[in-house]
Amino acid sequence: MLDEKDLEFIDALRSLNVPRNVATLITYLANTNEATAREIEIATRLRQPEVSMGMRTMRQNNWVEERDLKAEGKGRRMKVYKLSVPIEKIIQHYEVEKNSEATRTMQAIQRLKELSSAL
Fold this sequence. Notes:
Arc Repressor Mutant, subunit A; mainly alpha
């Protein structure tokens, strides 16, 4: 289960416009060696589609490793996930992204100032 510190970490990610499911998955996986999709659903209270969609984002960023685990008997294979990068690398990704956004915003504001003087 997620504790108070984890919820604060999720809130900090959310303040960067990270989707709730992705922020929750990052936080949960940072605190565990590996987990099945079902374990993630239970611990984070995310629904299966939310886990799947969040994992898609994390796979696209190469932040998560995924492997199949054969269930006992004739059961279905389970997906097991773990972070493939240190949490610091994920934080750095958002730092670079937000710095880039800030630069573009400031350039747009500067351009507006230049254009407004010609009005």
